[in-house]
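User: Round two. Same drill as before: sequence, then structure, for each protein.

Assistant: Same drill it is. First protein:
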Amino acid sequence: MFIQKIYKRSKDFFFSSTSRTKITVNVLWQVGDKFIRMGMGLIVLFWIGRFLGTEQFGAFNIALAYITLFGAFANLGLDDIAAKAIVNDPMRTSMILGSTFVLKFIGGVFVCLVASISILLVSPDKPVEQILVIILSVSVVFQALNTIDFYYVAKVQSRYSIIAKNIPFLLVSVIKIVLLLTARLTVVQLAVLTSFETLMAGLLLVFFYQKSHASVRKWKVSLPYCKELLKQSWPLIFSALVITIYTRIDQIMIGKMLGESEVGIYSAALRISEIWFFLPVIMAASIYPNLIETRKQDIQLYQKRHLTLFRLMNAITFSGALLITFCSEFIIKISWGESFIDAAPILSIHIWTGVFFFLGMGGSRFYIIENLQYLHFRRTLCGAILNIVLNFILIPRYGGVGAAIGILITQFFVSYFVELFSPKTRILFLLKSKSFLLFKN
């Protein structure tokens, strides 16, 4: 009955039958992709965590958080800007892709150099962390090849990206399993395989694009258009940075305050809690082109579709969070093992950040469609500052549990509450508030 009501809401409020079918197929492809990654990826990850132990696993996650922090600059906030540009002006697709690729490649090289130099200065007494960051930073350069993803997002054709990314994923997973079976896997090899997977996925994206659509040789680079893209995306560059700060800085701060072992325990809880974070990303990306078109034609229908999206997300997150909260200790034991048992209370708290993360992702495209990137930056900047302050207060007293409480408060503020204070985003606050009443018109 519950599922039927959710489906009816989706059917009544979302899109024409043709668009709905296209979006559904796209979502199913992406959900299937995540199930493959969760099926094999999580089993291998749990195995790696048990094999390396909390300290080495923590060192790897500190390096990964460090690269993610710098990687926000390399992306340049161009993902949704480029997809929107292709939807609105498909005749300039070659110029959009070419200009975006060049900007992302330059950004990746810059980040690779800065990350490698800075880790030598920040952690001069931790050679393993230095090596891990340098190796992982190379993957940021390879991510420029993911420019082709924007094309598939705009065309709602994610299957090509999924196939291109899953082939190297499966290959690398097999290599990891062989190394684990022979007890030869090291944390440095894990970093090398991570960068290798990124490179192979990018090259396969180029291959599929060449085979099924057009040649990358036809891409054009326009300096004026590069400037135009950066003018639109600069608030999103800093927004991405501050989002990364308040979602990953906790691991770096725990490492500095409590040590690598505590980071390993905290990261174990996050890996479980964030398993389903792909859902709002997929759903928002799949309906994004349709929302752009709907905004031009019918503002009330545009808002109604946002409301339905928020209700679907609430139905998913509340049911999942309740289940995981009561089963957290059991989940940690069967996944990571007894040595990670202290991750259970962290998981019970952190899982509820999903409620507001889902709402935040569901409404994120609203800011781009309405050209409110500066407001997006302002709210995320406030969130980053709030999270750092909370971490300084809570981590020394409560450890990983304190960090989980801090990010939960931050997500509530950034993804929901702050939208009340601007007339331009108040409609989002009202729609999100109304979405908690799942079946009320």
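Second protein:
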Amino acid sequence: MKMAEFRADLPALTGIRGVAAWFVVLFHVRIGASAQLPAWLIGIFAKGYLAVDLFFMLSGFVLWLNYSESLRSKGAASVPRFFGRRIARIWPLHAAILCATAAFALLLQLSGHGDPIHYPWSDLPLHLLLIQNWGFSNSLTWNDPAWSISCEFAARR
């Protein structure tokens, strides 16, 4: 029997991936929220980096589950479709978050509270193209968590 015949919806994995993703988000949010939240909660959020490995492991399994049969049967001919689907799934949300972050940075700058170190306008095109962590800059800026997507695309080129 082919692998495709065994595939099933795995809502438990989706839930675990969702929880892991939220822990990663909260890890990145904790610095800006430290004045508004109790120290014990910030301490929990500070452990969110531990969820990155779990999220990557489960995501790799889900990718393998969905694309392994196609890669085995069609070989390299299936790669463009894979990339097209990955970009269509990831980039629109990334672009929306990046636009919201740029609007926020602009508001900060106009109010005199801007952080030119964390929001360097010259790096914005790198982030838009998801190549910000390909060695063109040496710090996490703009949409910090997107470093992982940038690295994922670098590993596949």
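The chain is about 65% helix and 0% strand.

User: Perfect.
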